[in-house]
Automatic annotation (TrEMBL):
Entry keyword set: Carbohydrate metabolism, Lyase
Protein name (record): Bifunctional 4-hydroxy-2-oxoglutarate aldolase/2-dehydro-3-deoxy-phosphogluconate aldolase
PANTHER family, A to Z: 2-DEHYDRO-3-DEOXY-6-PHOSPHOGALACTONATE ALDOLASE-RELATED (PTHR30246:SF1), 2-KETO-3-DEOXY-6-PHOSPHOGLUCONATE ALDOLASE (PTHR30246)
Gene3D superfamilies per the UniProt record, alphabetical: Aldolase class I
Pfam families associated with the record: Aldolase
Keyword Protein transport: no
Pathway assigned to this chain's UniProt record: Carbohydrate acid metabolism
Self-association and partners: Homotrimer.
An example molecular function term from Gene Ontology annotations: lyase activity
InterPro entries: Aldlse_KDPG_KHG, Aldolase_TIM
Species, as recorded: Hymenobacter perfusus
Keyword Ribosomal protein among UniProt keywords: no
Family membership noted in the UniProt record: Belongs to the KHG/KDPG aldolase family.
Coiled-coil ranges per UniProt: none
Amino acid sequence: MPRFTAAHALTQARQHPLIPVFYHAQEEYARRVLAACHAAGVRLFEFTNRGPQAPEIFERLQRFVEADFPDLLLGAGTIFTAEEAGRFIEAGADFIIQPVTSPDVAAVCRSYDLAWLPGAQTLNEVYEAHRLGATLVKLFPSAYLTPEYLGILRGPLPQVPLMVTGGIQPTIESLTEWQAAGATCVGLDARLLDTDEPARLTAQVRELLAVLRPTM
């Protein structure tokens, strides 16, 4: 059974509204990034399904998280099919993130009361994802849709929890603008962060988290 419910994941996303989005084929490097982000206050971390060894690396990272950082939710991203979702859930995924909206993946996540974050762009897509039970709807790729677009979307859908991600720059100005436009939380590509030195990464992420107010 999953460690955390969908409701708990949403609460954590609201209270700690920055989610690193990361993949690396070297497990030890990934561990260092995870540890540095947790030290900064991150409580949701997305490891993307972008390489042939991603499921195996994810499973070992999940054991590492459970042993050393039990309050951190480690989710699997870039999931397209119910089969992929099931494989990562069996490996211990605390949430599932998609670049698209797949009703069969939604059904798998619902069966475990596991947080499901599907990707959407248009008003119709966001509404449909919410109707299917999305914990958070992932507005993707947000950088090309702009904060102004998010603000317009918020008009008819003020209560839908929205995660913005995809090309967002890791700057105080950018994050402030996105949250002011109505973002519940922000996903940042960890390749844009200073991941070469753990202490600098912790300082950078802590500074960015400090400008994001918890959302309710």
